[in-house]
């Protein structure tokens, strides 16, 4: 059989180690399509917003959380639009030229619809906070502190409330157009100059000593009032008892007086009493009893006692 070089490859394309170039190209195309398909799908996490640029131009419409089919040529910047807290410590001068340290917490979040403006004018979210929020906050705190007469006035509740309200109003007015929404301003701590702190502590100690003295005086006054009340109650009880004794004595005297009057007007009562006495005496066998009538020299028997003259 005659062998002709190249006859076995007749009708087929070129190959590389048994794999045709056409097959390699097909695989590359499929890979590119798959990669492009992934690049066309973008997922934005919850609480975030996406901003895209195409050839350096920022797209005005942001992408909210969810799944999106997009241009694979987009370049993405993702912003966290959830609520956050920024804490700031500032030295605040009052009208008495004293510096008071004030710790403030700012609750804020980025405005979703203004994320493209933030990217175009400022950059990232951290850059927006450092460029807009922090400098303005420090400036407002210092300016508001100048309206406070004395450093110790920072501890007054009305002063703190006024500070929080004024700072919030200023920040909202300034930061809203920048794409930052401020929700609350909270004063966390206030540190006065050391010598004022010592003076306040000494004043509190004096006030506490006065309060203790007042409490002791009130306790003593209460005890004295209780003693007086008890003495008054005892006096009233003694008076009531004396009144009862006096009433009983008066009743007894009246009874005796009435009895004496009755005896004086009725001699038979004396005879009756004598008979009762003789009755008791008669119980003694050794007793001898004689009855003498004043009008007769001879003794009278008992039966004649009480007979009329």
Automatic annotation (TrEMBL):
The chain crosses the membrane at residues 20-38. SMART domains: PHB. It is a single-pass membrane protein. GO terms for cellular component: membrane. Its main location: membrane. Keywords: Coiled coil, Membrane, Transmembrane, Transmembrane helix. The keyword Acetylation does not apply. InterPro entries: Band_7, Band_7/SPFH_dom_sf, Prohibitin. Residues 39-204 form the Band domain. This is Prohibitin family protein. It comes from Sulfidibacter corallicola.
